[in-house]
Amino acid sequence: MNTPEQSQLGKSSAYVDQYDASLLFPIPRAGKRAEIGISGAAPFFGADMWTAFELSWLNLRGKPQVALAHFTIPAETPNIIESKSFKLYLNSFNNTRFADASEVLARLRTDIAEAAWRGGPVQSVGVRLIAAEQFDREPVYELDGLSLDRLDVECTHYQPAPELLVTVPAAEGMVTEVLVSNLLKSNCLVTGQPDWGSVQISYTGLQIQQEGLLQYLVSFRNHNEFHEQCVERIFMDIWARCKPAKLTVYARYTRRGGLDINPLRTSHPQALPGNTRTARQ
């Protein structure tokens, strides 16, 4: 079983520029999920949506080619892929010759599916390449919703404090709201380096007290955990303490090493949003 400490995070790494699928380092989801009360099947659906901004390879004549890549890794895969290993893997394409983009796409799909589903039956992952002539079609949008950041609140917790999550009196009735914040920050589980993100919380249920929700999101500021794990912790804390009928938590983290990670977890099946970057990404 791979652990984060066994990965290349925080270590000096050799630069490999010839294709090498073995560089991908999967880490089981089960351990961190157990910490937040998940044993067996998780009470959510969703996916981890990645964008690779630094993807290049050589054509058969040795001329460099470039593309963007969108990856969609289902939340039910047994593993996350450690981000530095993902970067090293993508770098291994740099001086490798491929017949065309379709060959690159096939390699990406096969390798990432094998790593993400390792330990269980291998199923598919989503991979889409954006060619250079399509770059200007890539839009920039901010997350929709009512901004929590407008609230003038005092913040004193910088480790996750789920006790801050409360609902307003039941007499207020059920509501459907979409709330957003740009104040999400956590740190890498291994290196402690900062991870910056924006988060969107959509729910139907008793109204969540917005001041407490913002203070709760800020409480992740000194917390060490991977992006995917933070989003699942946020989902489970709101789910347990506020008991909404429906809940979706979606975060978009700024890129590091040419990669961004954008996890979404939802209580009910729904179409995934387009993997559209925000201005900070």
From TrEMBL:
GO terms for molecular function: preQ1 synthase activity. Its EC number is 1.7.1.13. Substrate binds at I81, E82, S83, H227, E228. Coiled coil: none annotated. NADPH binds at S83, K84, R256, G257. It comes from the Bacteria. It catalyses: 7-aminomethyl-7-carbaguanine + 2 NADP(+) = 7-cyano-7-carbaguanine + 2 NADPH + 3 H(+). InterPro entries: GTP-CH-I_C/QueF, NADPH_dep_7-cyano-7-deazaG_red, QueF, QueF_N, QueF_type2. It is an enzyme of class 1 (oxidoreductase). The keyword NADP applies. Pathway: tRNA modification; tRNA-queuosine biosynthesis. Residues 261-281 are annotated as: Disordered. Belongs to the GTP cyclohydrolase I family. QueF type 2 subfamily. HAMAP family: QueF_type2 (MF_00817). This is NADPH-dependent 7-cyano-7-deazaguanine reductase.
